[in-house]
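cron nightly-structures :: item 1 of 1
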Amino acid sequence: MSKDDGVINYVITKYSRLLWPIASAVLKNVGNEQDVEECIADVFIDLWEHPDKFDPQRGSLKSWLCMVTRSRAIDRYRELSRRNTVSLDGAMMAGRMGVQEALLQEETRKELIAAVNALADLERDILIRRYYYEQKPREIAKALDLSVKQVDNYLYRSKQKLRHAVTAY
């Protein structure tokens, strides 16, 4: 398979709907629609960047895409599961905190979520990619067709806005 825009667009159009239920089934309990979408996009990006990984003598493109999608979805499932677990130390510490302190932390968390949701789409996307998905600024810049400097500037301004929104209360 070669790096041809027409070919990859054809593959995406033909197989996206096939791959969606595979990724959805794996990510059903821990992921959301965006996680499924990113998982499938990662499969196509991998095919685009490394077409040599697909060997037509070992099977069809359809079965290869299905296998890679399932594998990527399992990896994402593990990643999301790790993020959603609380360590025993964290649970014990939470148990020692006073009720007032716990309520204050919950209120701050809600304010922060509201502030993140109030950001412009691009700012929110960059912030989530950097701090939730732990992507490097270079990866974000490549994915969003921006310069690394632009990504750094968006991150700086977004953090300033969040700091102001949370401390304003």
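cron nightly-structures :: done
The chain has a mean pLDDT of 81.
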